Amino acid sequence: MSIQPERCQLIVFPLVNRVGKVRDVAFKMLDKATDRHADFYRHQVTEALLRHLDRMGIGKVEQDEQIGAFWAKVQDEMNRLSYHFNRPGGAA
Questions:
Q1: What is the DSSP letter of 8?
Q2: Vertex 46: Cα angle to 44 and 50 (nearest 5)
Q3: Comparing C-alpha atoms, which of 64, 28, 60 is closest to residue 44?
Q4: H/E element holding 87?
Q5: What is the pLDDT, as a whole number, of residue 91?
Q6: Per-residue pLDDT tens for 14-34?
Q7: What is the pTM of this model?
């Protein structure tokens, strides 16, 4: 009699919940002097995140969902930071 191992499902900690990473990337994106620099940095971050998800065995569809949600969260954080530092009266 052969015993079949149980299949398991890997549950990934969502990239959007990596608050420190989101804030760090948003701050660095805002600090880029040109759109070209920002695009290059975005590409670097995306490639690193994809490699990370790929090493974990995450499928391409979920990778795309995770990356899309991550960049949406980064954009939200960039908007928040821009408002915070550019509002009248300063960032008191």
A1: -
A2: 120
A3: 28
A4: none
A5: 52
A6: 899 999 999 999 999 999 999
A7: 0.79
